[in-house]
UniProtKB/TrEMBL annotation, chain A:
InterPro entries noted in UniProt: AAA+_ATPase, ABC_transporter-like_ATP-bd, ABC_Transporter_VariousFunc, P-loop_NTPase
Name the UniProt record assigns to this protein: ABC transporter ATP-binding protein
Molecular function GO labels: ATP binding; ATP hydrolysis activity
Domain ABC transporter: 6-229
Keywords: ATP-binding, Nucleotide-binding, Transport
Source species of the chain: Sporolactobacillus shoreae
Record bears the keyword ATP-binding: yes
From TrEMBL, chain B:
Coiled-coil intervals: none
Organism (species): Sporolactobacillus shoreae
Record-given protein name: Uncharacterized protein
Source domain of life: Bacteria
UniProt keyword terms in alphabetical order: Membrane, Transmembrane, Transmembrane helix
UniProt-listed Pfam families: ABC2_membrane_2
Keyword presence, Membrane: yes
UniProt lineage: Bacteria, Bacillati, Bacillota, Bacilli, Bacillales
Secretion signal span: none
GO molecular function terms noted in the UniProt entry: ABC-type transporter activity
The keyword DNA-binding is annotated on this UniProt entry: no
Transmembrane spans: 32-55, 61-79, 108-133, 153-174, 186-205, 217-240
A single cellular component GO annotation: plasma membrane
From TrEMBL, chain C:
Protein name as annotated: GntR family transcriptional regulator
Residue ranges of every copy of the HTH gntR-type domain listed in the record: 17-85
One Pfam family in the UniProt entry: GntR
GO molecular function, one term: DNA-binding transcription factor activity
Length: 232, 246, 135
């Protein structure tokens, strides 16, 4: 069960004078749900962009699925970028066709099932969708894929309560039906409190605290309360 | 692992040939499009009628419109890159399971298709305009019309020759602007200005404009255009891979 | 503390405590006390995960432990059911009764109480509890 899917060894990345990632070392286990938590500028998004090869570390070594991250490993990763928008001229149905043709492991039938579950109209163009509908569409694009790794950067930001509820239900199904590794960064800890197997707190680009969620609960109480303490 | 490395390039190309508007920009309704189209057509008809009845017009100058088309392609190409950032879709684009080279090549080919469509539309409209002017003019003969059409081949050919270079250039500048090499943009324009003035001073453009050209020089221009495009695309994909400022 | 309903069963989930143990103890109690009757179907892992908003793997691990306890049994293609054997439940309860009683006695002995004194405490406690119930 304990086989690493992501190994970061002393990786660093700076933008000008700002150190976005600072000698970060971290191992993510296969098949786990890991919450990457931390305030703004903690380095969550930069770390996710490194996993998908969009950003390269200045130093250190990052291994994803046994390789250096890049477009080849991306075929096995479903990635929801932070503050992402979808192409406005696609309807949901067209987006799913796009997914079937372009994204490895994408299953249109699964996407359609999720769209129905999440109450997403199929023939509406994205430019006409509400923020919540667009977010649901983008999430489906990620979780209707049978790939080993799903990386979601702030999947709940700016999304209304009912959409959140539906997204979490879909995530629960994704965890149980496929043996996927799920990485979520979020501010809305309360929503995913019960979902996380492991928790990583980032601060100033380095690991502040990491551990099994259940063990952390025994020691510190709920992850939500812990995150408030960590923020101070 | 099935199908990991052979995701269809075709699908990516189809994706890139779709027109993307700026997100959040309200779209003009079909009725308004119709109104503008009718207005434009009517204006063209009236002007053509007026000028051909009152003056003897040198129709071949209308082909000058073609000089603008490559620059339209250039602008579209810059926008093609900028829009990924502006619309917030860049994360999706760059995380696609295609090499950087294929990502940029798909955009390039999409721009070529767009350019060809534009050229074709311009060509057809100009011919129609010529036919109409010939028909209503008392001084223009069928022979004049034939000469008019023949004089259009060269600008069209030049357009086709210029497309790769300008599409490549547009994409390159678009990528450059998003990379850590951004400051090199100024250097590039200086370089471009010098090259352009040197080239203009040879009088090649003037010659072509007047219908004189050396077939050898023209083929050389086509080859140079493609080679330059290739280099620009390679450079762009390298920038996308190593020097992005995300 | 969150009260959540799964079908007709109610669970209380406290996110400041390990979730696995909460599910395990509450499921054990539901079966031991007969709230879930002999041979009755228990909620699926998916149903539990959805309603309680917790990781299905956590539920699954708790369910595996229940099976080891002998309190549930899987039926192929039909799901998981409470055991049909009264004996097994009795065995389970006895095992825990002995364990709890032993722990209790050890604690009391270590404080120097003898059996008589312990008995007095138990009587007093159960009387108090009885009063409280009557209030």
């Amino acid at each position: 069960m304990t086989e690493p899917i992501i190994i970061a060894e002393q990786i660093s990345k700076s933008y000008g004078r700002k150190q976005a990632i600072d000698h970060l070392s971290l191992t993510i286990e296969k098949g786990s749900v890991t919450g990457i938590l931390g305030g703004n500028g903690a380095g969550k998004s930069t770390f996710f962009r490194m996993i998908t090869g969009l950003v390269r570390p200045d130093s250190g070594r990052l291994t994803v699925l046994g390789e250096e991250p890049g477009w080849r490993t991306n075929s096995q990763i479903a990635y929801l970028p932070d503050r992402a928008r979808w192409y406005g001229n696609y309807t949901a149905e067209q987006t799913f066709d796009w997914g079937s043709n372009i994204l490895p492991g994408f299953e249109k039938s699964e996407a359609l099932r999720l769209a129905e579950l999440m109450n997403l109209p199929l023939d509406l163009k994205t430019e006409g969708m509400s923020k919540g509908q667009e977010a649901r569409l983008m999430l489906i694009l990620c979780i209707a894929r049978s790939v080993p790794l799903i990386v979601l950067d702030e999947p709940f930001s700016g999304i209304d309560g009912s959409s959140r509820e539906r997204i979490i239900e879909a995530l629960i199904d994704a965890i149980s039906e496929k043996e996927q590794t799920l990485l979520i960064s979020t501010h809305e800890i309360y929503e995913v409190e019960g979902l996380m197997d492991d928790v990583v707190f980032l601060k100033d680009g380095a690991v502040q605290l990491t551990g099994n969620a259940e063990k952390l609960r025994t020691e510190y109480g709920s992850i939500y309360d812990l995150s408030k303490k960590m923020g101070d | 692992m099935q199908g990991i490395n052979n995701q269809s390039f075709d699908a990516l190309l189809r994706h890139e040939t779709r027109r993307v508007r700026k997100n959040g920009k309200p779209r003009m309704s079909r009725q308004w499009w119709m109104i503008y189209a009718i207005f434009f057509l009517a204006a063209a008809l009236i002007l053509t009628t007026y000028f051909s009845l009152s003056y003897h017009i040198e129709m071949k100058y209308i082909w000058s419109v073609c000089w603008g088309i490559p620059w339209v392609v250039f602008g579209f190409s810059i926008g093609k890159i900028r829009r990924e950032w502006g619309n917030g879709t860049v994360g999706w684009w760059l995380a696609l399971p295609y090499s950087r080279w294929r990502l940029i090549a798909a955009k390039f080919l999409a721009m070529m298709v767009r350019g060809l469509c534009l050229a074709l539309i311009a060509f057809t409209l100009i011919i129609l305009f010529g036919a109409y002017a010939t028909l209503i003019s008392s001084s223009l003969s069928l022979h004049d019309f034939q000469i008019f059409i023949l004089s259009g081949w060269l600008p069209m050919l030049l357009d086709l020759a210029a497309f790769p270079l300008l599409a490549g250039l547009g994409l390159f500048l678009g990528v450059l602007r998003q990379s850590t090499w951004r400051p090199a943009g100024i250097l590039f324009w200086v370089f471009w200005g010098i090259l352009w003035s040197l080239f203009s001073s040879t009088g090649w453009f003037q010659g072509v404009y007047n219908g004189r050209y050396d077939p050898l020089a023209l083929s050389a221009a086509v080859i140079i255009s493609w080679i330059a495009a290739l280099l620009l695309l390679l450079l762009s994909s390298w920038l996308l891979d190593k020097k992005l400022d995300l | 503390m969150d009260e959540r309903q799964v079908g007709s069963l109610s669970f209380s989930i406290d996110f400041s405590q390990p979730l696995y143990e909460q599910i395990l103890t509450q499921m054990r109690s539901l079966i031991a006390r007969g709230t879930i009757g002999l041979g009755e179907k228990i909620p699926s892992v998916r149903e539990m995960a959805h309603e309680l908003k917790i990781n299905p793997n956590t539920v699954m691990h708790a369910y595996q432990e229940l099976e080891r306890d002998g309190l549930t049994e899987k039926r192929r293609g039909q799901g998981t059911f409470a055991t049909t054997s009264m004996m097994k439940i009795k065995q389970f309860k006895e095992r825990f009764a002995l364990e709890y009683a032993q722990d209790f006695l050890e604690n009391m002995h270590s404080l120097g109480f003898n059996l008589n004194e312990i008995h007095t405490y138990l009587t007093r406690l159960s009387q108090e509890k009885g009063h409280r119930k009557n209030d």
